From TrEMBL:
Domain of life: Eukaryota
Single GO MF annotation: ATP binding
Protein name as annotated: 10929_t:CDS:1
Residues that bind ATP: E25, N26, D39
InterPro entries found in the cross-reference section: Aur-like, Kinase-like_dom_sf, Prot_kinase_dom, Ser/Thr_kinase_AS
Keyword line: ATP-binding, Kinase, Nucleotide-binding, Serine/threonine-protein kinase, Transferase
Species lineage: Eukaryota, Fungi, Fungi incertae sedis, Mucoromycota, Glomeromycotina
Residue positions of the active site: D21 (proton acceptor)
Domain Protein kinase: 1-65
Pfam hit, one: Pkinase
Length: 65
């Protein structure tokens, strides 16, 4: 499943989309068992600028955030 998440994130980043809220609750399984990334409520479109706003679920943020 990690490879599926990585492919989804690669696709999003190639299209300048940042999800910003990846957590188990936002991962769904399709009818054939494929993993799907859901809940794009915190997502943003980015053309190379660095974002400094911290958002998402606090329980899943890395310590350096």
């Amino acid at each position: 499943y990690i490879a599926q998440i990585a492919r989804a994130l690669k696709y999003l980043h190639q299209n300048h989309v940042i999800h910003r809220d990846i957590k188990p609750e936002n991962l769904l399984f399709g009818l054939r068992g494929e993993l799907k990334l859901a809940d794009f409520g915190w997502s943003t479109y980015s053309m190379g600028s660095q974002h400094t706003i911290v958002c998402g679920t606090l329980d899943y943020l890395s310590p350096e955030m």
